[in-house]
Amino acid sequence: MAKRFPAETYVNGILSGDRVLLSRAITLVESKLLQDQELAQEVIAAVLPHAGNSVRIGITGVPGVGKSTFIEAFGNYVIAQGYKKLAVLAIDPTSQRTGGSILGDKTRMDSLSVNPNAFIRPSPAGKSLGGVTRSTRETIILCEAAGFDAIIVETVGVGQSETAVHAMVDFFLLLMLAGAGDELQGIKRGIMEMADAIAITKADGTNADKAKAARAEYQNALHLYPMSQSGWLPQVSVCSALQQTGLDTIWNIIAEYLTLTQGNGYFEKKRRDQNLQWMYEAIRQGLEENFYAHQQVKEKLTTITEQVKTGQKSAFAAAHELLRLV
Amino acid sequence: MAKRFPAETYVNGILSGDRVLLSRAITLVESKLLQDQELAQEVIAAVLPHAGNSVRIGITGVPGVGKSTFIEAFGNYVIAQGYKKLAVLAIDPTSQRTGGSILGDKTRMDSLSVNPNAFIRPSPAGKSLGGVTRSTRETIILCEAAGFDAIIVETVGVGQSETAVHAMVDFFLLLMLAGAGDELQGIKRGIMEMADAIAITKADGTNADKAKAARAEYQNALHLYPMSQSGWLPQVSVCSALQQTGLDTIWNIIAEYLTLTQGNGYFEKKRRDQNLQWMYEAIRQGLEENFYAHQQVKEKLTTITEQVKTGQKSAFAAAHELLRLV
Predict the structure, then answer these.
(1) Which DSSP string do the residues of A56-119 spell out, in sequence order?
(2) 170-229 in chain A: CB under 8 A from chain B
(3) pTM of the model as a whole
């Protein structure tokens, strides 16, 4: 662990847009050491009044859909138009198993990583999904306080992390490949209904027509969904990171969404609801961590779990038995 | 509260198929009194080895879709074919607000309620969603032990109860009206992706063609969904409770699903996962109940909630502050 500064140093650094101090504050947020955690919370509390002024965009899609390529092209487009200063974060709790986090290799986003208006931060390693989502959520606050007004949170659409990402962003973009076949099966059920927009990627060359057909098909399917509370009808578009086409359309869709939801109050309401949701979630996590770390619970859990699985003990009786131990 | 019998009396009654003792045991399960609860758990523990031998079917749909009429016609069909002995339960945490539970008025299922092979039990009143789902889950065990080998759990597709029902059944049937318009908006997002089958109701008279068109449309849309772990592709069919048509098709779809999933092991795996899920859920509920009932937490919660909503305090700091109180 690098030397710790006083909280004030991080706070002043972040508020003046200093990348090095921003990065080091994020490292504190990600640390498991109690001392780091306490310092991190002090920094967050101080910068919190300067956070919130951004559009938070979640992007998901299965491996192979071209997420990094898309984010690089899209990020450069958004910055080049003078729209936004962009931070790219990642939630990838699988990185331990696969041996590399999705943004771990920054060279995969060559041109974006050297863009002075971009800040790329890989997924923290060695943490549970709960740990990763908490630190990502707090990293959003730090980046916003440092002046980034567009935050992309990237995740892989195959696990449970998309639900966590969906709960921390304003707009959720699902990347899909053309051809409604086997390749879709990697996407978890329920994700399509979370999407505020679907972008069909790699719509170039011989793939262009297939992508357009897929767009029509998905747009029809989305019409069958129940309307979201926001009053927004999810949009489907096609794009090619290779040919740099369709990026403007996607940005316009996001801008339209913001106009609608900031106008009708949904944007603000969703943010407040998300804040509360995260508080309740953090409480739940804290309660469960303490419970499952309890010595007697640890000793009995395996046996009882087996009895419940095989129907020898009812779920409620088992829970009751364990709860009595603490 | 009626007089309590020894646990043995309920157990013997249930195992011999005595409806009166089954009903009274369910009343114990639904009771909030500690003494009743303890007795109920004793009964459940004793009958548990005799439970499990049924197909559990969840049925949902917005008010107006004709749920009661469908369940009556479908239930009578299933019993008449000699397929099954049927219990119909309901989860309806909204019944307190609307003043009547969905199965509260048994006369709405006139012919089914007098069918000797059917057992209808309304949603318990005056309980939270967590309370209702727990007692319904335990009622399933009691009904199975009493020899009912088809269990229908009915719910309204507008709240959070469908997720709970989905987590306690083998097969989830969504009832929809023809015409993919306004009437769909009452259905909560995410429910369509939970469905193992969709039945378009009221496919009779001038509505028949519209229903068939809707079937094709939904079947196409469902093809776009990611494949379920079970290997099952959700089916869409049309039916008319009025004309008693399409009920055989729906039963055949369920039978096909059972053949597939009992053959590939998914059925058994899902049941085990559900058992565990309910244990963890019951633990979570127990922990949270104790926490939020804590005097100091109760005193501080409102203020802190307000601070989190308005962004004065981060979600994690707020959670930490509250957790320190207990």
Answers:
(1) EEEEEE-TTS-HHHHHHHHHHHHHHTT---EEEEEE-TTHHHHTS-TTT-GGGGHHHHT-TTEE
(2) 180, 184-194, 217-218, 220-221, 223-228
(3) 0.75
